[in-house]
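Justification of computing resources. Each target in the renewal requires a structure prediction run like the one illustrated here; the chain below, 375 residues long, is used simply to show the kind of job we budget for.
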Amino acid sequence: MRTSSAQSHSRVVTCSRAGAWRPWELEEVSMPIVGGLDVHRKQLTFDCVDLDTGELRRGKVAPADRKHLAVWLARNLGGNDEVHLAFEGCTGWRYVAEELVSAGVSPHLAEPADTAALRGRRRHAKTDRADSRHLRQLLVDGRLPECWVPPAHVLEFRALLETYHDLRVEHTGWVQRIHAVLFHQGARRLGEELGSAAGQAELAVIAATELSAAGQRQVATALSMLSASETQLGLLRGELVTAARRLSGAKVLSTRLYGVGPITGVALTCWLGGADRFSSARKAVRFAGLDITVHSSDGKRSPGHLSRQGPEVLRWCLYEAGKTSARASAPDHAYYAQVQERIDGKRAAWSQARKIVRQACHLLTELGDDALTLT
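Resulting structure tokens:
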């Protein structure tokens, strides 16, 4: 990877796994095109400069979809030996990265929060044009905070996990709505679990005898939504279990870590797997959003709570895995019981979740890129 100024000599730079540019030596080289893309639903705003001629190109690609981006890349950047484009890891980055790779362009995925922090104190209005210029300048200067771009199959597994989690949340919400309707209309509390046949039979009796017509309609709607979500959850779980059998890292984690099942194994591998992802297990804990906040001078968050940054799906899977230590047969049950007695069960589960992240990070580091291979 090379970059230069418009002078006769240029500075050659190399690219690490994370994609960071660093100076190496001076020699005569061909000059690349470097630019920034600001991704939005309506348009893509670009700011590109040819480091050989100094030509600057700005504009928009609209509408923002795969087809129009491919046409723009072929028309404006086709035939160039070396092109580097930076863009933020916000919604829509996946298709942009895939089209850049297909066109022979080197994609550089920027971490949004760190990129915004490098902008410094805002003195002017924030515009798409300014954002694309900011990305381009960071890339030229070698200061772009880059993210790892996962393989295509890992992105597919992540999408399935996110859908599974969304359905689980919706399922819980509909169950809570049923209990809220019963309480709001003064009906007696269910004595059985709603998911059991006895619980549904009891609910039918309560709805018929103790709820108004609107309340009966609410319960019927909730039951219908629960049935639909359970069907989809079963299908998705089957796909994720199949993925766990094929993904090398997930198989290792499910075998060696107590409480890590197929779904949690896939989640850990898809978000923590890969060579040189984390230099320490502590950084993996922070990435998962399980680190404890401390006092901050900006006063925007209180200390002593989970940061809850990073993938929500991964955090949910880890919490569920941490709760398995409540079983008397669990290896860490003594520690779990101690924390539960001293504080509460929720804190005990989060403590176990952090331990699982650290152990998983060490195992995935040993596997390197092999953790992401399919068998």
